[in-house]
Amino acid sequence: ERPPNGLQPSGPSDPSRNRPRTDAPPVPQTPAARQFVVYFDWDRSDLTAEARSVVAQAANYAKTGRPTRVLIVGYTDTSGSAAYNVGLSNRRSRTVADALVAQGVNGGVIALDGKGETALAKPTADGVREPLNRRATIDINF
To answer: 47-62 as b/e, with b when 16 or more CB fall inside 10 Å?
Structure first.
């Protein structure tokens, strides 16, 4: 029987009406930006076994999402002339980029730079062979 005002009688509410929806699709998590560092032998731009492993890790990480930009920057130590080191740093960044593309990373989002003997990871005097400075960084941004 209905009350005289035409409203439904009040009673226990349906508890299913207040539950959160469980049929909504999960929100995909965007991977965080991350940096990988690849080290090189003195005066070399080819990848060592360890460097190939780091590049593979970077490629696998890049493939977990859709990177908007992958910036690869090559560096050298202070041995050799500044002009030579710029060229070497560019060769290092190109080697890393080629390896990433070979492993399925979209080459269209890759940008390259070579800093030569500037922006040293470990500051040294001129002419010093420092392994930490012979590197390329891979910055993956989503």
So the answer is: beeebeebbeebbebb
Q: Percent of the chain at pLDDT above 90?
A: 77
Q: Which two tokens stand for residue 15?
A: 């508890």
- Both tokens of residue 75? 């560096």
pLDDT score of 4: 54
Report DSSP letters for the chain, one per residue: ---TTSPPPP----GGGGSPPSSSPPPPPPPPPEEEEEE--TT--SPPHHHHHHHHHHHHHHTTS--SEEEEEE---SSS-HHHHHHHHHHHHHHHHHHHHHTT--GGGEEEEE-TTSS-SS---TT---GGGSEEEEEEE-
Q: Which two structure tokens, joined as six digits, stand for 115?
A: 């800093």
Q: Structure pTM? A: 0.79
Alpha-carbon span 44 to 95, nearest angstrom: 11
Residue that is written with structure tokens 């400075």 in the block: 133
- Give the per-residue pLDDT at 137: 98
In contact, 33 and 67? CB cutoff 8 Å: no
